[in-house]
Every structure is written in structure tokens, then in C-alpha cells.
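User: Show me an example of a complex going from sequences to C-alpha cells.

Assistant: Sure. Here are the input components:
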Amino acid sequence: MLEINNLQVSVENKPILKGLNLSVGPGEVHAIMGPNGSGKSTLAHIVAGRDGYQITGGSVTFNGKDLLELAPEERAGEGVFLAFQYPVEIPGVNNVYMLKAALNGIRQYRGQAELDAVEFLKIVKAKTKAVGIDNSLLNRPVNTGFSGGEKKRNEVFQMSVLEPHLAILDETDSGLDIDALKAVGDGVNQLRDGKRSFIIVTHYQRLLDYIVPDFVHVLSNGQIVRSGDKNLALELEDRGYDWLKDEANVG
Amino acid sequence: MASQPQEIDEFVAQKYEAGFYTDIEQDSVPPGLDPGVIEFISKKKGEPQWMLDWRLKAYERWLKMDEPNWAHVNYAPIDLQAISYFSAPKSQENAPKSLDEVDPELIATYEKLGIPLEEQKMLAGVAVDMVFDSVSVLTTFKEKLAEAGVIFCSFSEAVIEYPELIQQYLGSVVPVTDNYFAALNSAVFTDGSFVFIPKNTRCPMELSTYFRINAMNTGQFERTLIIAESGSHVSYLEGCTAPMRDENQLHAAVVELVALDDAEIKYSTVQNWYPGDENGIGGIYNFVTKRGDCRGKNSKISWTQVETGSAITWKYPSCILKGDNSVGEFYSVALARNLQQADTGTKMVHLGRNTRSTIISKGISADRGQNSYRGLVRIAKGATNARNYTQCDSLLIGDRSGAHTFPYVEVKNSSAQIEHEASTSKISDDQLFYLRQRGIRDEDAINMIVNGFCRDVFKELPMEFAIEAQKLLSISLEGSIG
């Protein structure tokens, strides 16, 4: 589904990703862990199509298509969704209105008929219930004045409405208390259907208590230095990241 | 006239010497302004002597005034002697014969705005000699208004039909000496609209569609007077989202509103005159004086404007809050792109007790556009417990545009409460990326952000106008991000 080969990315001529390889199959949940500054968020941004990075080598394909050639909205159309670490406030723009434009934008890209307000609200109603998001958030301006937890829940809600094929969660756990963490985990677990894939970018193991990954990768200094199953995350929790860095340097 | 620079005196005298022989039967006067021209205009309109005297007095005062230069705008000097001050309705000879002859870009804009075909023809100045549907619509309107006792007619008609109302109220809000352009307008105005809402009457309709059709081609010096008697209510919509064919570069209109006890006037404007091309060539100079007088107790005047057109906008719809407990409001969206310059804002003058005013101004600058908010809040000595809330936000698109804020506050009564909030923001890459990541195309994303920014003002517009205004804004912003 997602194939990343030897990806090399710089910011202002400083290499951030140095030959990264990752393969994500349908229905799989991959956790990307690593110390601060290892390039985790860069990876998430590159897949979603954010500007400001120089891609100096390698490839990213999604269901056989060259993702790097596509605009962010086209990638959304292909089914890529990024849950932001810092969801952006957009004053005056109604949350549900934005989401309707997004869903119809995606449908248009796929050559499907756009949904009218009635059809759309039906979906919203169902998803609101499923994700357990507070109704009052729906008609407020996008993320404006939301608490940290509300913003992250809103990301999960949007994800559930847009039904992506691949969802990337960029440090969704940062700044969340235990209840909010659990709510986000529940929301994501509901979306696991054996076909939809996830990349969970996180610094800490704790989110993985709620969203159990199939694979765990450790990103350090721009490369994946170790891969394993969920036990690797637990090991990291015990031992920190330093031992891996040392190993990588030796290797 | 002693204070006059000699050249002007000579010039004026010279024109006189040359004499003014134009026949009253003729349809236009040669360029230039002198008392003869004013007499011609007045005669042509069959005005009574008092109206002519009023015009001539304004002219005398105007001669002694200087063009203001304090606004944050730049333009080459306007040669007021090069303008013809009266021309009959446009000749149909040179007008396009059908929409096929009209600039396709203009037609595309009309279509995007969803304007009906007949109206498109009218706006584009297509020569239509048949009587189209709207005339019968007009008649229906007129009957309905007459039933309610509402007077709504052209200004010229009002001078003849309702001289006592005109004499009582004309110039009572904007005196002829108010400013250079208001004085000029007072001397040479050609037409405009007159509205009178009798006591305890709610105007049965928004005065909009009628206006669109009725007040076309009223020329560059338009005069509007709206009087709301005690306990009455009116909502007046001026302008049109569609760009109109217009050869006049200078527009200097005067609008006067009078609200008596418990009366309410809501005045909404959508202005989309030709802004000039991307190099700043052409475009309308829009130098307007708009003022409302809350003369009665508990009266309310509310200005809402969406200004996207004109090369230069110089406009400060204001409220004089004379009556106790009166309320003034100003909601504005002003867009400046390419080389457009907008210097707009309001004045809220609090004279009565417990008077309140609200100012919400949203300025958008794109490309090399320069947008200035200029506002005055004055609390007079007797205005006990006056309150003002001002919110002034600027949105910048691109890195060559400019936003400027000039708020003036004068308080002479210590019980006043004044709040001022201001913000300047850019459409951020973060916002754009966020929306695009969700599947929204970049232009749609920009429109969404801009419309969100303007929401507080759009919600003040009558529903239909609000939708048009949103569309207009997105059309005006097309291609503003490379």
C-alpha cells in the first residue's frame, strides 16, 4: 500500500531523513517511535505533502502512485489523512461546513457525486455518536478556542468522517491527559477494519497501550534503526533511546 | 473670494467670459464647471429657485476649499475642469447591441454571480428598446410601497414633489461645507434616491431590487436622502455585486440618513466598481460622504459595507448619536488587491446620553493592495455613559500588501467606556496546508479562510446579499495566490 524507499529529505540543506525505508500493508498499524529531532514529524509531513522540504532522493508510492508528484488535496483524494500534532485554528469557518467541503472535495477527486447537506448530516450524526465528540464542537469555528483534548478529538472525528485508506497520527498523544488519550485510542480502534492502515508517530509508549500496533519502528538520526513488534515499544519505555543510538553509531 | 489663488479666479472669470450658450434643449454640457453649468443642470431638471440657490451657494463655498490630502492614498491630481457635469442618459448608439459584443470576462463574472440574463444586459449597458419584465415588477413595488405610505423616488422627482421635506432635511446631516467633495456634490449632483418612511411604519420590503434597476446611471455625483420618522424602520440596500459599465472615473456621492425617535435605518452597500487593471490603469475614484444622524431618542443607524471595487476608496460612513440611548453601528469588509487603495472607516460621534456604538472592520489586502482603517470615536461632554466597542482586523495575503490602522479617540466625558481591539494576520501556510490536507483545493481553501475572517460582517447583511457578497469576494480574490 505505502512504499517508502531510500527517502532522503533536507530542510534548508540540512539532511533530516537519510535513506528511510518503510512498507505499510493494508490493515496494518505501524508505530514510528524515536527521540525528539529524529525526523518523525518530517516523515508524516512528507507523506501528506507539506511544502518547505527538499526531497533529495528516494520515492514514496501509495497504491502504485507516486505520491510525491501529487498536491496535498490530491493525496487526500487518494485516501491519505494526517491527524496534526498542532491542529490549526481557522476563525469564522464552521467545523462541519469545512468537513463537508473536504468530503465533497475528496469525492469529486474520485469522480463520485457530491453529497447534499441532508446526506452529509446523516453521516455526521452517525460519526458523532461513534467517536463520542461533543455536539457543541461541531458547529464552532474549526479548532478555534478548543482545548488541547478537543482539538485532538476533532482530528479523530474528521478522520472518521473522511474514512481515509491510510491515516497518519502525528504525536496525537502529546498534551493529552489519560482520559483524552483513552478517548482518542477508542476512536482510532473503531476505525480499524482490517483494510485501513495507520502510522502512529509518537515519542512515548503510552498511546500504544490503547492502540496496539502490529509493527514498531525506531527512527533515529533519519533512519529506521530497528523494527519489531509491540514489545519493542515496551523495551524502549524501559531503556530509553540512547542504547539504540549507540548501536546505530557502532553499526 | 479674496483668499482664492489668483489663477483660479482668473480661470473662473475666463470661463464666464467665454460665456455659456448651451441651449437647454441640448443633452450635455462641455467639460468644465462654472455657475452657468450649475444653472444649466438645475434648469434641465426643472428645479425651483431655492434648489438652484442652494447649489450655487455650495459652489461658492467649494471654490474656497482645498482637496483633502490626509488619506493614505496616492493618485494623480484630478482635473475637475475636464469633467462634463451633465450628460443625458448614455447614448444607445455606441452601446453594445447584444451580449455577444460585451467583454466575455464580464459575462463570465455575471454568470458566476448567477445574474439573470435580462439584468446582465442592463448592467453591461446593452441597448434594449423593449420593455422588459422588471418594469412590471417595479410597478408592483411602487404600489406596495404607496400603500404603506412610503415615498421612494428619484431625488429629482422629490425636489419637485416633496420640496418641503427636501428643504427641511437636505444638507442637515452633511452640510455643504462639510468637505471638498461633499461641497462639489452639493453644487452639481444630478440625481439619486429619496426615501421617506412615515411614523410607525415598517417599510414592507428591503429597498433593494428596485434600487438596482431604478438607480442605474444616476451619474457620478449621486445624492441620497433617507428619512425615517419616529417609530419607523427601513432596510436599504445600495449597489450591486456585478461590475457595471461606467466611463466616469470620479464618483463623489453624498448620502444623508435621518432617524427620528425610535426609528431604525439599516443601510447596506456592496460596491464593486471597476478597480483598474493589474497595473493600476483606469479604475474608479470613489470619494463618498455618508453620514447618519440619530436625531431622535432610541434611534438606531447601522451601516454595513462590502467594498471590493474602485481603484481608490475614500469613505467613512458615520453616525451622529444625538438622541439619548441612540445606537450607531458600522460593519465593514474592504478588499484591496493589485494596486487598489482603500482608506475607509467610520466616525461615531456621541452627543446624547447612554449612546452606544459598535465598529467591526475587516480589511483584506492582497497583491500590492493597501488597506487603511481610519476611525474616530468622539465622546462629547454631555454624552454620559456612552459606550463604544471597536474591532479592527486586517488580513494580509502575500507579502507585498499593506494594512494600516488609524484609530482616533476623543473622550470628554469620564463615564465613557471604550474598547478597542485590533489584529493583523496573514493567511498562514499552516491554515492552507491543513485545509488542503483535508481534501480542499487551494483556491477554495483561501476563500474559506477569507470568508471566515469576514463572517462577523457578512452576518449583518440581508441573507441574499450575504450570499452574493461571499461569491463576490471569492471572484475578486481569484488568482491572488500564485
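The lines above are the inputs; the final block is the predicted structure for all two components together. Chain B touches chain A at residues 428-431, 433-442, 444, 448-449, 451-456 (CB under 8 Å).
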